[in-house]
Amino acid sequence: MTNEQYKEPSGSRLAEVWESGLTKPPSVAIRSLHNVVNRYLRVTRPEEAEDVSNGNVDIIVYLARHDNEEIFPQDIEQRFGVTRSTSCRVLGLMEQKGLIARESVKRDARLKKIVLTDKSRHIAEVLHDNAKNMERILLEGLDDDQIRQFMHMLDVMQTNLVKTGLIGDESRYSSLEIQEQDFGESQVSQKPQVSQESQESQESCDGRNPHSRDSHDEYVSRILRMSQEMAIANNLR
User: Fold this and answer.
1) Whether the predicted model's global pTM rises above the 0.90 cut
2) Backbone angles phi, psi at 113, to 5 degrees
3) Minimal CA–CA distance to 220: which of 30, 29, 77, 75?
4) Spatial separation of the C-alpha atoms in residues 78 and 214, rounded to whole Å
5) CA distances from 113 to 68, 100, 161, 205, 207 (A)
6) What is the pLDDT of residues 162-179, one digit of tens each?
């Protein structure tokens, strides 16, 4: 199909074009791109990361991105939407492989934060370099204004679905509009007190209570990050 044929429909006629099969609807086009991106990353995965599972890679990338913060098992549970037992099992195996370590927190020796080892830091670096190269190839032929407009459209589409309230906790999804709203509310609200009973029931691998981390810095500003995060939950299960 030529560009002229694709541009011809407008308004409500677009739905008719998608229904006729002449072109992909947006959701299918996005899934197709997501699959191609993941396929490219798999075939170009650096040798240093060949023996690391996709789920472990996702956690390594997350820890590297939050290297200046204290990350605990509950943060992994909340970020990836997994259960306490799953996070304990996955993190335990990663520790055995030498990918992460647990360090005591100065303010409370009972708390154990998760940190990257030198081995996993190197893996994070080579994966980052590969991802940057992939994004460069992905965006060839597009100028900055086109890229910004594309990212805006993706965010609007995602926000539309999240705001239906049908897909769970909004904080799990990287919608700029929703996160800006949450960020603003966090400036004027205080964290609720946790009861002793709730505290005991929620303690996990490090004895720390889960908390709601400010998700403002989680906004997906690049296409690669969006596509990776769409598959994280499935990779970990």
Assistant:
1) no
2) -85, 160
3) 30
4) 12
5) 12, 10, 34, 10, 10
6) 888 888 766 666 655 545
